[in-house]
Design brief:
Layout: H1 2-9, E1 14-16, H2 21-29, E2 35-36, H3 53-74, E3 82-92, E4 95-97, H4 103-113, E5 117-132, E6 135-151, H5 156-164, E7 185-189, H6 192-196, H7 200-212, H8 216-229, E8 233-241, H9 245-255, H10 271-280, E9 298-301, H11 321-327, E10 349-353, H12 360-368, H13 389-396, E11 403-404, E12 409-412, E13 418-419, H14 426-432, H15 438-441, E14 447-448, H16 450-463, E15 470-472, E16 475-482, E17 500-507, E18 512-520, H17 534-537, E19 548-550, H18 551-558, E20 572-576, H19 580-591, E21 596-600, E22 606-607, H20 615-619, E23 625-626, E24 629-630, H21 634-642, H22 646-657, H23 664-675, E25 679-682, E26 687-693, E27 698-703, E28 709-712, E29 714-717, H24 732-737, E30 742-743, E31 746-747, E32 754-756, E33 759-763, H25 785-788, H26 795-814, H27 821-834
Parallel strand pairs: 1-2, 1-3, 8-10, 8-18, 10-15, 13-22, 18-33, 19-29, 20-21, 20-29, 21-25
Antiparallel strand pairs: 3-4, 3-5, 5-6, 6-7, 9-12, 11-14, 16-17, 17-18, 23-24, 26-27, 27-28, 30-31, 32-33
Length: 838
C-alpha cells in the first residue's frame, strides 16, 4: 500500500498541520516529503457539546487542518494539495484528559489512570485542496482511531518521580508511551503509533482508498460538481438520514453492489428442521416451554447437553452437519483469510447525521442506561455479508469472554411473574456446540457485550471503508420536487399519479441536498411523541424539571453519565414501566446511590430473553397458537407475510411482542435487590395521582393498589413512545403530495418500504432510534413494522429492511423488473427466519 500511495503523493504539497515532534518523526521515518505548518486554531471547542471523546478529537483535527489550508491559500499565496490534521486525547470514564495544566493536574490524571484501562483517541482530518475560479475548495475525509491502554498500579513515589521529570507536561493524558511513560503500560490493544499521536496505518489506508480507487473516475464529474457548489448544495443518488446500526447495514450493501449478501434461502441451522422434527414427535410435543409459574422462588433450569449421537468423520454430529452447512457455518479452508469483495461504487451516497459520526446516538443511549450487553445474540449484527463476522471478530481479538452465555437457572420471586422462555434444550444445545467445536460454535448463541459490539461497529466501518461517509447536519425539511407531466421516466407513477423527480432536503443552516432517493434511518423528530401518562398533566403544582423525567429526557440529560440525572445519595426513586428500559433505570438508580426504588408496572412482570419471541419460539420447537396466531417461528412468518391487511398485521405484531418484558439477565441483577428490600416491585399497579411539595421538596404519589401512597425524590417514566406520521413535520411535505392510508399513525408503505409508487422515500425500522436499545415498549415501533414484522426495529429487522431497500434502489438504477408478490413473500420469510428474528 505504501508504494502506490507514495507515488501518488510525489510532487504534491503535503502539509502536516501540527507542531508535534512525534507526529513529524512518524512521517519522516517513512520517507514522506512534507512541510510542517503548525495550526493556529485556538482549540476552544466545548467538550460538553460532544457526546463522545472521539467526536471532539475529530472535530478539532478538522478545524486545525482547515485553518492551515485557508491560511496558506490566503496569506502564503500557496495552496497545499493535502493537509493532515490530528488531535489526540486520552479518555477514561467518558472524560477527556488533555495536556496537564500543571503538576497537580498531572498527578490527578495519572492517579486516575493508575491500575486501570483507558482509551487513546486520535482524530484525523485529511483535507484535499484545490482552487476553482480563484476560490479555495476543500474536501475533507475525517476518521478516528482508538487504542486501549492498561496501566499498572503506580505508587506515590513513582508518580511524583515521573511528574518531576517534566515529561507529562506536553502530552495528552500526562504521559508519553514512547519514553519513560512506557514503563507504566501493562498491555496495549490497538495501534501503538496512535498513542504516540498519529495512526499511520489508518491514514495510509484512507489515502490508498482515495488515490487508488478505480471506481473514483466514474464518480469524478459529480464529485467535482459538488466540490464547486461547496456547502450550499449537493447532488447525490441516495441520502440516508441517520447514522445508527440500520444505516450502517444499508450503506454497507449500497457501497458493495457487486457482493452477494448472506442468503438464508438454503435454510437455517435447525430452525426449519427443528420445527418439523418436533411435529414428528407428536405435534407440540411434551410439556410446553412457557407457562405461568406461581409462588415465590419458582425456578426454571436449563439442561446441559448430553447423550451420544452418530458422528461424521470429522467428529461432528450427523444431524448438525447439514444444518451448519446451510448456514455457512462450516469451516472452509479455501475461505480462510479471504476478505469480503468490495464491488464498484457506482452510486453517490451521502449519510447525514447531527453528530457527523457513526453511532454516536447509539453510544449515548447505551452509556446513559449503562447497558452491559445486547439483547440480540451473536448471529444478529450489522454485517450483511458474513453471518459469522461478530463471532470471528471476538475470537480474533481474544474477547470470547465478552460473549455472555444465556443463563441456565432463574429464580423468579414475584408471584405474578410470567416466564415464557424455556431456554435451550438438549437437542438445540447439541446443534450449537457440535462435535469438537464446542468452544467456537457455542459463541453463536450468546449475548455480546456493548463494548464488544461497539468495537465490531468500528471494525466493520474500517473494513468496508465507511469512516468518512457521515456528514454533520440536521435535516429540517424534505420537499419532493415533482417531475413535469409526462416526464420522470422509470416505472413509477404507472397509475397516472405524481412522480418525484428529486427531493430537496434542507439542512439546518440553510444548505440543501438534491437527492434522488431518501432513506429515513433516524429517530422521530418530535420529542412530544413520548407516551406520558394522563396523571402527569393533572399535576397542579410546578415542579423542578429534573424530578420527573421520561426515558427520552433521561437519556438527553444523562449525556453519558447517570450522575447528571441522579446526583444525591439516599434518594427515593419511583420507576414506572415494565419493559427492559425500566429494569435498566431501576439498576441505575441503585448504582447512583438511591436508598430505595419502587418499581410500578400495570401488568405482571414478564421475563423474556428476546424482544420478539423466546428461545423456543425462535427455533420453532413447540407449536402453539395464541388468539389464532401461530407463534413458533416459521409458521408465524408465513402467516404474517400472507396477511395483506395492515390492521391484521398490526394485531399480529401486538401478539408477538406481548408488551414490555425484561431479560433473565436484567432480572438476575434485580432479584438480590428485591431480596434486600432496596427494590420494591408493585405489579398490577398504576399511579392514580401525584403532587409536588415545595416545602418538603418531595413527591407524594397515590398508587392504585389499595390507595397506597409513596413519597420520594424522583419519578422516572419508562412508558414508551407512540409515533404518528401525521404529527412528524419532517414528513409533512411528503404526506401532502403523496397521501397514504394510515393505521393508528403508521403509513401503509409498499413491500420495498417505499413511501408510495413514484416517491423514492424509504422508511427503516431504525426510524424509532430509541428502540434499538429497547427503551420503549412495542408502541415505539416504526412504520416499517407493518411490512417487515414485529422485529423491524431490532438488528435482525434492520438487516431485512436494508436488504429490501438496497435491492429496490439498485434495481431502480439497473432498470430491473421486480419479482411477483408470491415469490417476494417467500423471500421475506426465508430471510427473516434465517436472520433468527429475535
Amino acid at each position: 500500500m505504501l508504494k502506490p500511495v507514495a507515488s501518488k503523493l510525489t510532487g504534491k504539497c503535503v502539509v502536516l498541520a501540527s507542531a508535534s515532534p512525534r507526529r513529524r518523526d512518524i512521517l519522516t521515518n517513512i520517507g514522506l516529503k512534507f512541510e510542517v505548518v503548525p495550526s493556529w486554531y485556538s482549540e476552544d471547542l466545548s467538550k460538553a457539546e460532544y457526546p463522545a471523546p472521539y467526536a471532539y478529537a475529530t472535530e478539532t483535527a478538522v478545524r486545525k487542518a482547515l485553518e492551515v489550508a485557508k491560511r496558506m491559500h490566503e496569506r502564503h499565496q500557496k495552496t497545499p494539495d493535502l493537509v493532515i490534521g490530528a488531535d489526540t486525547v486520552v479518555a477514561i470514564d467518558g472524560d477527556i484528559l488533555e495536556k496537564p495544566a500543571d503538576k497537580p493536574d498531572a498527578y490527578r490524571m495519572l492517579s486516575r489512570l493508575s491500575g486501570r484501562e483507558h482509551s487513546v483517541f486520535t482524530g484525523v482530518a485529511l483535507v484535499e485542496c484545490c482552487v476553482c475560479e480563484g476560490k479555495l475548495q476543500t474536501s475533507v475525509v475525517q476518521f478516528h482511531e482508538e487504542t486501549r491502554v492498561k496501566f499498572a498500579e503506580l505508587s506515590e513515589e513513582l508518580l511524583w518521580d515521573y511528574i518531576d521529570s517534566g515529561e507529562p507536561m506536553d502530552k495528552a493524558g500526562g504521559y508519553g508511551i514512547q519514553a519513560l511513560g512506557g514503563m507504566f503500560v501493562e498491555s496495549i490493544h490497538g495501534d501503538f503509533l496512535n498513542v504516540v499521536g498519529l495512526p499511520l496505518h489508518h491514514i495510509f489506508r484512507k489515502l490508498g482508498e482515495h488515490y487508488i480507487d478505480e471506481a473514483a473516475t466514474e464518480r469524478e464529474p459529480r464529485r467535482r460538481a459538488n466540490a464547486a457548489m461547496g456547502d450550499s448544495e449537493r447532488d447525490v443518488d441516495v441520502l440516508i438520514v441517520g447514522s445508527g446500526p440500520h444505516a450502517l447495514t444499508l450503506l454497507t450493501l449500497l457501497r458493495n453492489p457487486g457482493s452477494r449478501p448472506w442468503d438464508s434461502l438454503s435454510g437455517l441451522f435447525g430452525g426449519l428442521k427443528l420445527s418439523a422434527a418436533a411435529k414428528g414427535r407428536g405435534g407440540s410435543g411434551g410439556r410446553r416451554a412457557g407457562g405461568r409459574r406461581r409462588g415465590p422462588g419458582a425456578v426454571k433450569e436449563m439442561e446441559e447437553a448430553g447423550g451420544s449421537r452418530g458422528t461424521a468423520a470429522d467428529g461432528r454430529s450427523e444431524e448438525v452437519e447439514p444444518a451448519l452447512a446451510s448456514l455457512g457455518l462450516e469451516e472452509k479452508a479455501a475461505e480462510d483469510g479471504e476478505e469480503t469483495p468490495l464491488g464498484p461504487q457506482l452510486l453517490e451516497v451521502m449519510v447525514v447525521d447531527t453528530y457527523g459520526q457513526w453511532l454516536v446516538q447509539w453510544d449515548k443511549q447505551f452509556t446513559a442506561l449503562n447497558i452491559p450487553h445486547l439483547r440480540s445474540h451473536a448471529l444478529v449484527h450489522t454485517d450483511p455479508f458474513d453471518k459469522r463476522a461478530l463471532q470471528v471478530f471476538a475470537t480474533q481479538q481474544r474477547r470470547e469472554g465478552e460473549l455472555r452465555a444465556l443463563p441456565r437457572r432463574l429464580h423468579i420471586l414475584d408471584e405474578n411473574a410470567f416466564f415464557n422462555d424455556g431456554r435451550v434444550g438438549k437437542r438445540e444445545r447439541r446443534l450449537l456446540s457440535a462435535g469438537g467445536c464446542a468452544r467456537q460454535n457455542e459463541l453463536y448463541f450468546t449475548l455480546p457485550s456493548t463494548r464488544l459490539f461497539r468495537d465490531f461497529f468500528t471494525h466493520q466501518i474500517e473494513h468496508y471503508s465507511l469512516a468518512g461517509a457521515v456528514t454533520a447536519g440536521t435535516v429540517d425539511a424534505i420537499l419532493p420536487v415533482l417531475a413535469a407531466a409526462g416526464g420522470g421516466g422509470g416505472d413509477g407513477g404507472g397509475d397516472g399519479g405524481p412522480i418525484v423527480d428529486y427531493f430537496q432536503v434542507t439542512l439546518k443552516g440553510g444548505s440543501t441536498v438534491r437527492a434522488h432517493h431518501v432513506v429515513l434511518a433516524a429517530g422521530p423528530t418530535r420529542a412530544a411523541m413520548a407516551v406520558v401518562p394522563d396523571w402527569v398533566s393533572s399535576i397542579g403544582e410546578r415542579f423542578p424539571e429534573d424530578r420527573l423525567l421520561h426515558t427520552t429526557e433521561f437519556i438527553s440529560r444523562a449525556g453519558g453519565s447517570v450522575a447528571n440525572v441522579v446526583s444525591e445519595p439516599d434518594e427515593h426513586v419511583l420507576v414506572v414501566g415494565g419493559g427492559l428500559s425500566s429494569a435498566h433505570m431501576v439498576l441505575l438508580a441503585v448504582e447512583a446511590g438511591a436508598s430505595s426504588v419502587t418499581w410500578v408496572m400495570r401488568k405482571h412482570l414478564q421475563v423474556k430473553q428476546f424482544d420478539v419471541g423466546d428461545v423456543e419460539t425462535l427455533v420453532g420447537r413447540y407449536a402453539h397458537r395464541e388468539h389464532g396466531v401461530r407463534l413458533d417461528g416459521l409458521p408465524f412468518l408465513r402467516q404474517f407475510y400472507a396477511e395483506r391487511g395492515p390492521r391484521r398485521r398490526l394485531d399480529m405484531i401486538r401478539q408477538a411482542r406481548k408488551g414490555g418484558a425484561v431479560t433473565p439477565e436484567a432480572y438476575g441483577q434485580i432479584r438480590p435487590l428485591i431480596e434486600a428490600g432496596i427494590v420494591s416491585l408493585r405489579a398490577y399497579c398504576q399511579v392514580e395521582s401525584a403532587s409536588w411539595s415545595y416545602k418538603e421538596q418531595r413527591w407524594r404519589v397515590v398508587l392504585s393498589t389499595g390507595k397506597e401512597t409513596w413519597s420520594g425524590d424522583r419519578i422516572w417514566l419508562a412508558t414508551g413512545c407512540k409515533l404518528d406520521v401525521a404529527q412528524d413535520p419532517l414528513l409533512a411535505n411528503v404526506l401532502r403530495h403523496f397521501p397514504v392510508p394510515l393505521v393508528e399513525g403508521w403509513p401503509a408503505i409498499d413491500d420495498d418500504l417505499r413511501w408510495a409508487t413514484g416517491c423514492e422515500l424509504y422508511l427503516m425500522g431504525q426510524y424509532a432510534a430509541l428502540k434499538v436499545t429497547n427503551l420503549c415498549n412495542w408502541m415505539a415501533q416504526v412504520w416499517t413494522s407493518i411490512k417487515v414484522g414485529p422485529h423491524a426495529v431490532n438488528l435482525a429487522g434492520g438487516q431485512a429492511a436494508s436488504a429490501r431497500i438496497a435491492k429496490a434502489i439498485l434495481q431502480k438504477h439497473r432498470e430491473e423488473q421486480q419479482e411477483d408478490s408470491s415469490s417476494r413473500a417467500q423471500e421475506f420469510i426465508d430471510h427473516m427466519h434465517g436472520l433468527m428474528w429475535c
